[in-house]
């Protein structure tokens, strides 16, 4: 087995003069810098001298360290970096576990619970280890691995990851991809303003850090990242592009899956494999609203996920349906060019202010990330933590909480804070303020990140927010309930995706001819989001209940899933078996737990309508617990959870 995944980026040598060092230190994140200084000097007393960040996750990234104290840390850092440069960069060994625990407590501003230590230390990966490697697959003899062919469906973020990990493990695989290139959602969503809303230092593979140009990269940069990774790890050689999977059928006699796919030329081919990994994403099949007259509009009409560049938008009257994450990003962009934008809003989004949302990462920060030993590790780790467990408390239900606008005391504090932000932006326009403040708990739906662009766009004289419900789409435009007609030239649907129909439109047949969509009946469930009773050796990535609202990056989930799937392969191989099927009772008990968990979260509140819920109101999308819990549960499969045979 070759080890491909590496989590240490080679550091560049420090050659710059003192004045330069002094200037870049102004850009430093002080908690990450202090942790780095401990690594560079081997002196833990640096964090024992009273200067200490607090645990305020929403507020100051400097952890409330005063300007005066920051200056003290910078002066100390200057001396340390000068010595490090002049001594040609010799580093002491990585501190022992006790000091790492002290460092974790320090940067997080609170004592890290014991059960978190392993998870966080692994995520930090201070020795350069692959944090999400599956050790069990390493011990399996190559001849066993080489006969366990896998078909992966999709080459977006999860499919590329699956390819990298299978290649590393020495397991043969083919990736079938309907598109002409890799990238999945980042290839398909090309609307103006499209960018990631999770910070890029965590929205990236743990083993492939990048010197990101921005904190939150635009679509082209992300596509470039996945494209580059697929090339660097030689994953393209395994991908059959322009090949759409129609069906997959399990044969109980041979214990294999037959996957049928059609190429763009209409040629149908079958692929036989021991296991199938679906990595098809959720956000790529447009959902159109159920509105009378849809299709009757005379002008161009298209969906945000199928953006049509061919239409000149300048000087046009444009109607947009929806104010979700996609419309939120493209409306401000097109508002600069259109004559008028009529925004049909059913529900406003909650917005988390993020000043740096569109900003380039300044040169000094790049320098620190690239040249100060361990600074990037701690910076990434802090970014990871700020977007993870700490936020969960503020979106969890308090027993007996009666307010419909929030689910608990902390959630209500968050609501007040976010409302104050909206007021600071549009408080001078009471009509717009009323329209912009959501009447559901924060994090009931995906919370959107912004630097003021959205509300500034809504204030433009050529942007009109209509909350009167649409009753009809007609040749000229749209009609609303009060009888108003809005004539437009172009209609754009920002109405989201058919995310609730996991794995559709593929026909997937498991044991006894059981068809997955018929089996699910619009209520998709899986064990750990990955395995389904009746469907042996079928593994879903980004499957039911693995989505997140406030905590973490979806890449974290995919990395945990791939580690688990390799664990499943190792388990079968070590036991000399070829199939494993999740036990029904294990699956059911797990789903009860998930449902209970989701009912305790803001997105499970009964007055929230979102794509996270199915038509019965059950949350089929979200993971309701901590990231640590998913990490822990997916370390290695419990053999008792499965029927292992073949
Ligand atoms: P979405 O969040 O599902 O938003 C769809 C919008 O259309 C909602 O505002 C919805 O209103 C509205 N809508 C649907 N039917 C309507 C009707 N009949 N009349 C009026 N309005 C209607 O879809 P999306 O914006 O494409 O985002 C989907 C997901 O993709 C996000 O949650 C996020 O996970 C992901 N995404 C991420 C990014 C990013 O990382 N930056 C960007 C885009 C998307 P209601 O809210 O009332 O249903």
What structural keywords apply?
FAD/NAD(P)-binding domain; 20 helices; binds NADP nicotinamide-adenine-dinucleotide phosphate; 646 residues; five-stranded parallel beta sheet; 33% helix
Would you give an account of this structure?
The protein has 646 residues and is of the alpha/beta class. It folds into three domains: 18-112 and 364-386, no CATH class; 136-285 and 499-638, 3-Layer(bba) Sandwich (FAD/NAD(P)-binding domain), CATH 3.50.50; 301-350 and 443-493, FAD/NAD(P)-binding domain. It has 20 helices and 21 strands. The strands form six sheets. Strands 3-2-1-7-19 form a five-stranded parallel sheet, with helices on one face. α8 (157-169) runs parallel beside α18 (554-574). The longest helix is centred in the last third of the chain and has 21 residues, at 554-574. The chain is globular. The model is unreliable at 1-8 (pLDDT under 50). Bound molecules: NADP nicotinamide-adenine-dinucleotide phosphate (NAP). Residues 195-197, 283, 289, 291, 304, 321-327, 329, 344, 346-347, 446, 470, 494-497, 609, 611 line the site of NADP nicotinamide-adenine-dinucleotide phosphate.
């Amino acid at each position: 087995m070759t080890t491909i995944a590496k989590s240490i980026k080679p550091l560049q040598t420090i050659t710059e003069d003192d004045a330069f060092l002094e200037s870049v230190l102004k850009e430093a994140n002080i908690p990450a810098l202090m942790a780095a200084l401990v690594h560079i000097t081997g002196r833990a007393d640096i964090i024992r001298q009273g200067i200490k960040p607090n645990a305020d996750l929403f507020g100051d990234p400097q952890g409330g360290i005063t300007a005066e104290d920051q200056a003290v840390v910078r002066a100390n850092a200057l001396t340390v970096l000068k010595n490090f440069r002049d001594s040609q960069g010799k580093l002491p060994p990585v501190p022992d576990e006790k000091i790492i625990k002290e460092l974790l407590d320090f940067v997080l501003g609170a004592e890290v619970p014991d059960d978190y230590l392993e998870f966080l230390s692994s995520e930090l990966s201070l020795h350069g280890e692959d944090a999400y490697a599956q050790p069990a697959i390493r011990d399996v003899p190559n001849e066993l691995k080489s006969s366990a062919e896998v078909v992966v469906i999709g080459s977006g973020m999860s499919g590329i990851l699956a390819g990298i990990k299978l290649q590393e493990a020495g397991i043969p695989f083919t990736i079938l991809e309907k598109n002409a290139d890799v990238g999945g959602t980042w290839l398909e969503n090309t609307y103006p303003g499209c960018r990631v809303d999770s910070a890029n230092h965590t929205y990236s593979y743990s083993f492939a850090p990048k010197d990101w140009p921005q904190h939150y990269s635009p679509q082209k940069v992300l596509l470039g990242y996945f494209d580059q990774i697929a090339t660097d790890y030689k994953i393209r050689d395994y991908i059959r592009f322009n090949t759409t999977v129609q069906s997959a059928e399990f044969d109980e006699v041979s214990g294999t899956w037959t996957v049928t796919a059609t190429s763009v030329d209409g040629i149908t081919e079958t692929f036989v494999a021991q296991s199938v990994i679906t990595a098809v994403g959720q956000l790529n099949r447009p959902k159109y609203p159920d509105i009378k007259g849809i299709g009757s509009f005379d002008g161009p009409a298209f969906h945000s996920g199928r953006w049509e560049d061919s239409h000149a938008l300048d000087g046009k009257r444009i109607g947009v349906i929806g104010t979700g994450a996609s419309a939120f990003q493209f409306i401000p962009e097109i508002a600069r060019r259109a004559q008028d934008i009529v925004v049909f809003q059913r529900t406003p989004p909650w917005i988390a202010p993020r000043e740096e949302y569109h900003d380039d990462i300044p040169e000094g920060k790049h320098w620190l990330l690239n040249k100060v030993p361990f600074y990037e590790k701690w910076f990434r780790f802090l970014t990871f933590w700020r977007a993870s467990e700490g936020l969960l408390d503020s979106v969890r239900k308090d027993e007996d909480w009666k307010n419909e606008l929030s689910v608990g005391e902390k959630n209500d504090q968050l609501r007040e804070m976010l409302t104050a932000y909206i007021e600071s932006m549009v408080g001078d326009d009471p009509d717009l303020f009323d329209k912009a403040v959501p009447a559901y708990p924060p994090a009931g739906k995906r919370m959107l990140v912004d630097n003021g662009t959205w509300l500034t766009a809504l204030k433009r004289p050529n942007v009109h927010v209509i909350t009167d419900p649409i009753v009809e789409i007609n040749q000229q435009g749209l009609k609303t309930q009060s009888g108003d007609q809005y004539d437009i030239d172009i209609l754009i649907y920002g109405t989201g995706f058919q995310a609730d129909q996991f794995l559709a439109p593929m026909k997937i047949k498991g044991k006894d001819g059981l068809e997955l969509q018929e089996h699910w009946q619009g209520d998709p469930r899986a064990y750990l989001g990955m395995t389904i009773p009746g469907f042996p050796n079928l593994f879903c990535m980004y499957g039911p209940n693995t989505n997140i609202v406030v905590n973490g990056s979806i890449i974290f989930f995919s990395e945990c899933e791939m580690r688990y799937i390799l664990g499943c392969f190792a388990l079968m191989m070590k036991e000399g078996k070829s199939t494993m099927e999740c036990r029904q009772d294990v699956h059911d008990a797990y789903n009860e737990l998930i449902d209970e968990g989701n009912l305790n979260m803001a997105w499970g509140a009964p007055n929230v309508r979102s794509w996270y819920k199915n038509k019965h109101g059950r949350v089929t999308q979200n993971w309701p617990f901590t990231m640590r819990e998913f990490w822990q549960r997916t370390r290695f499969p419990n053999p008792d959870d499965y029927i292992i045979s073949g």
